[in-house]
C-alpha cells in the first residue's frame, strides 16, 4: 500500500502552508517523513536547496525541524518539564540533569502559551487533553525551530487556547519560521495559511494560494479530489 | 512500604520473643539480602522499560562459576599463581563482572535489535547459562575460594565499630547536605518549599535510622573463639574480656554504593530519564530522538553487571561455588522489585523501593523459618504476599487517582 504517493510540497521562510485532506489521506505520514519518524521509499527532502539526510527524529532536530505530532508523543509518566526537554535535557556542570533549571524554563514558556497551566510537578497523564497539547506545542517552539510542523495542534484546545495558538503561529511566522499546519478546520486554515495543499488517498490534489480560492473550492478539492480552478481553465 | 517492613519485623520480633530483631539476626538477614537486593536495583530498570529478565539467577551462577574456576584452576593450577596471590581476587571479580555484563548485553541485543520478546530471550537464558556453568565446572563444587575474595561475603569482611561509625556519620552528613541543598536550589528558583519543621523531622528520622542501624550491627559481637584465632594468627594472645563488634559488612557497603549510584542514574542522568521515558511511552521516546534499541542493550548489560556483582557476594558468603548458587533468584529479584512498587506496565519504579522489597521478602522468609514454619509453607506465604502487595498497591493508586 502507498500511504503517500508522489507528493511534492514547498515551504518558504515566513510562510504557513496548510495541509488538508480527508481522514487517512496521508497527511500525517507525509510529515512524519519530514520529521524523521518514517523513511520514504523514494524521493528527496531539500532544505535551502540542499539535499537533507533525515533518517531519524534526531536528524530532523539537527536541521531545526520541530514537530507537534497528532498523538502528541508525550511520556505520560513524566512531568511537563521532563517532556519538554526530552532528548535535550539541560545538564549542570557535572553532566547531571538539572530539573530545577528545566522547570524554571518550562514555567516561562507555559506562561506565554497557557497562563492557566499550573500542574508542573505532576505526570502529564494527570493533565487534560488541552493541557497535554500545550506541553507538546511548548516543546516544539522552545528550541528555535526553523521549520515547524503542527499536526492538528488545536484539536483538543478550548476557544481561548485555540486563539492563543493562532496568535503564536502568526508571531512565529513573523519571525521567519516556515510552518506546516495540518487541520480539518478550513475556516481556520483560510485565516492562518498563505497556501494550502490538499491530499486525497495519498496523492496531491493541488496546492493553491489562499487568496486565489474560496472555502468551497477547498472543500470540493478535499471531497471530490478535483481542483475546480484547474478544471475551469 | 517502610511501614510494612517495620510491621513485619515487629510482629516476628514478638513471635520469636525478641530474637528476630537481635543484632545477630539483623546482621544475618542483612547479609543474606544483599545479592538479591543488588540485582533488584538492575531489575527496576529492566521492568521500567517494559522488559523482564528471567535469567538473572542463571547469569549469577555462570558468573560465579567463571570466578570460581579462575580461582581454583585457571589462575592457580594453570597459570601457576601461588595461593593467596593478591592478583587472584581482583581478576576473579573482574571475570564475574565481565561475564555478567556481556550476557546481559547479549540479552539486550536480542530483545532490542532482534525484537525477540525479552520474556522469551531470558527464559531461554534461564535454561542455558546455569547449564553452561555446569559444563564449565563439571557440576563440581568449587572451593576453597581465595581468602581476599571472602571479605565480600559478609561475616568475613566487616568494617568494625570505628569505621562503621565513620561511615554512619559521613552518610548522615551527606543526607543532611542533600536535603539542605535541595531546599536551597528550590528557593533559588523561587519554587515552593516544604515547611522548615517538616524538613527537620525528615532529617532527624533519616539520621536516626542510619545511626540506629549501625549501632545494631556494631552490637553484634564477634564470637570469642573467632577473636582468639585472629589474635593467634597475629602471634598475640587475646586480652582477658576483650570484645569486638562486627559492624558494617563490606557487602552491605557495596549495596549502599550500588543504591546511591543507581538512584543517581535513575533521577539525575539522561540515561535514567530515557529509561523512564521509554517505559512511559516508547513511541514518544523514539520521536524524541532517543535510541531505544541501544538503550535496551545498556539496561540489560547493567542488569547483567549487577548479576555478576551479586555472584561475587553470593559465593563469598557461601564460601564456595555450587551449581545451585542463585537458584530461583530471578523470582526473588522480580518479587522484590514489584513489591517495591515497580509496575510491570512500565515507566514506574524506584531503586529504594526494590531494595526494601528485597528486605521484606527476606524478612518474611527468615522470620517464618525462626517461628518454625516449614519451607513449603514459607514459599506459599511469599507467593501470596507478592500477589496481595500488587493488589493493595493497585487499589491505593486508584484511590489516589494516579495511573
Ligand atoms: N502504522 C501504520 N501502519 C499501516 N498503515 C498505516 C499506519 N499509519 C497510517 N497508516 C495508513 O496510512 C494512510 C494515511 O494515514 P495518515 O495517518 O497519514 O492519515 P491522515 O491524513 O493524517 O489522517 P487523519 O486526518 O485521520 O489524521 C491511512 O490509510 C492509514 O490507514
Ligand atoms: Mg493525521
Automatic annotation (TrEMBL), chain B:
It is a multi-pass membrane protein. Its main location: membrane. One of its GO terms (cellular component) is plasma membrane. It is found in: Cell membrane. The keyword Membrane applies. Keywords: Cell inner membrane, Cell membrane, Membrane, Sugar transport, Transmembrane, Transmembrane helix, Transport. The keyword Membrane applies. The chain crosses the membrane at residues 27-47, 54-75, 87-109, 116-136, 162-180, 200-222, 242-266, 333-364, 376-396. CDD domains: TM_PBP1_transp_AraH_like (cd06579). GO terms for molecular function: transmembrane transporter activity. Part of the binding-protein-dependent transport system for D-xylose. Probably responsible for the translocation of the substrate across the membrane. This is Xylose transport system permease protein XylH.
Amino acid at each position: 500500500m502507498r500511504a503517500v504517493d508522489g507528493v511534492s510540497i514547498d515551504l518558504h521562510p515566513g510562510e504557513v502552508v496548510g495541509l488538508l485532506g480527508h481522514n487517512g489521506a496521508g497527511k500525517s505520514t507525509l510529515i512524519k517523513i519530514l520529521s524523521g519518524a518514517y523513511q520514504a521509499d523514494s524521493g528527496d527532502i531539500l532544505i535551502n536547496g540542499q539535499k537533507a539526510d533525515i533518517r531519524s527524529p534526531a536528524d530532523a532536530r539537527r536541521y531545526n525541524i520541530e514537530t507537534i505530532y497528532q498523538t502528541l508523543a508525550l511520556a505520560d509518566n513524566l512531568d511537563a518539564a521532563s517532556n519538554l526537554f526530552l532528548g535535550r535535557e539541560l545538564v549542570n556542570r557535572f553532566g547531571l540533569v538539572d530539573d530545577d533549571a528545566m522547570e524554571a524554563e518550562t514555567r516561562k514558556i507555559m506562561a506565554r502559551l497557557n497562563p492557566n497551566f499550573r500542574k508542573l510537578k505532576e505526570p502529564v497523564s494527570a493533565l487534560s487533553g488541552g493541557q497535554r497539547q500545550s506541553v507538546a506545542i511548548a516543546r516544539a517552539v522552545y528550541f528555535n525551530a526553523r521549520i515547524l510542523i503542527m499536526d492538528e495542534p488545536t484539536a483538543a484546545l478550548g476557544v481561548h487556547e485555540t486563539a492563543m495558538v493562532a496568535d503564536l503561529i502568526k508571531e512565529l511566522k513573523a519571525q521567519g519560521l516556515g510552518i506546516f499546519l495540518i487541520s480539518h478546520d478550513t475556516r481556520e486554515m483560510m485565516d492562518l495559511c498563505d497556501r494550502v495543499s490538499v491530499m486525497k488517498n495519498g496523492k496531491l490534489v493541488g496546492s493553491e494560494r489562499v487568496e486565489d480560492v474560496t472555502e468551497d473550492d477547498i472543500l470540493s478539492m478535499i471531497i471530490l479530489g478535483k481542483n475546480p480552478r484547474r478544471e475551469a481553465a | 512500604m517502610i511501614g510494612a517492613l517495620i510491621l513485619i519485623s515487629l510482629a516476628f520480633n514478638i513471635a520469636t520473643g525478641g530474637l528476630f530483631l537481635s543484632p545477630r539476626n539483623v546482621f544475618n538477614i542483612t547479609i543474606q539480602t544483599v545479592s538479591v537486593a543488588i540485582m533488584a536495583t538492575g531489575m527496576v530498570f529492566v521492568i521500567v522499560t517494559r522488559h523482564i529478565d528471567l535469567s538473572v539467577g542463571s547469569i549469577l551462577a555462570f558468573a560465579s562459576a567463571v570466578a570460581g574456576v579462575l580461582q581454583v584452576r585457571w589462575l592457580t593450577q594453570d597459570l601457576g599463581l601461588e595461593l593467596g596471590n593478591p592478583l587472584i581476587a581482583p581478576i576473579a571479580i573482574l571475570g564475574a563482572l565481565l561475564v555478567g555484563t556481556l550476557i546481559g548485553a547479549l540479552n539486550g541485543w536480542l530483545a532490542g535489535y532482534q525484537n525477540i520478546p525479552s520474556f522469551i530471550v531470558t527464559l531461554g537464558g534461564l535454561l542455558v547459562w546455569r547449564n553452561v556453568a555446569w559444563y564449565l565446572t563439571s557440576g563440581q563444587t568449587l572451593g576453597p575460594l581465595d581468602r581476599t575474595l571472602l571479605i565480600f561475603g559478609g561475616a568475613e569482611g566487616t568494617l568494625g565499630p570505628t569505621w562503621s561509625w565513620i561511615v554512619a556519620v559521613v552518610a548522615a552528613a551527606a543526607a543532611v547536605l542533600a536535603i539542605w541543598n535541595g531546599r536551597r536550589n528550590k528557593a533559588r528558583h523561587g519554587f515552593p518549599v516544604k515547611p522548615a519543621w517538616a524538613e527537620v523531622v525528615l532529617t532527624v528520622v533519616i539520621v536516626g535510622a542510619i545511626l540506629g542501624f549501625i549501632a545494631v550491627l556494631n552490637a553484634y559481637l564477634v564470637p570469642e573463639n573467632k577473636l582468639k584465632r585472629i589474635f593467634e594468627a597475629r602471634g598475640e594472645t587475646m586480652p582477658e574480656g576483650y570484645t569486638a563488634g562486627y559492624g558494617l559488612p563490606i557487602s552491605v557497603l557495596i549495596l549502599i554504593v550500588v543504591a546511591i549510584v543507581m538512584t543517581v542514574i535513575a533521577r539525575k542522568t539522561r540515561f535514567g530519564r530515557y529509561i523512564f521515558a521509554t517505559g512511559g511511552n516508547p513511541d514518544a521516546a523514539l520521536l524524541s530522538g532517543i535510541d531505544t534499541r541501544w538503550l535496551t542493550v545498556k539496561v540489560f548489560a547493567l542488569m547483567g553487571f549487577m548479576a555478576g556483582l551479586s555472584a561475587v557476594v553470593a559465593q563469598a558468603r557461601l564460601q564456595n561455588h555450587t551449581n545451585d548458587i542463585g537458584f530461583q533468584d530471578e523470582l526473588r529479584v522480580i518479587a522484590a522489585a514489584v513489591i517495591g512498587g515497580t509496575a510491570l506496565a512500565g515507566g514506574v519504579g524506584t531503586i529504594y523501593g526494590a531494595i526494601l522489597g528485597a528486605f521484606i521478602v527476606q524478612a518474611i522468609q527468615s522470620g517464618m523459618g525462626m517461628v518454625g514454619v516449614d519451607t513449603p509453607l514459607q514459599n506459599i506465604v511469599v507467593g501470596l504476599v507478592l500477589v496481595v502487595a500488587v493488589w493493595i498497591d493497585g487499589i491505593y493508586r486508584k484511590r489516589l487517582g494516579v495511573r
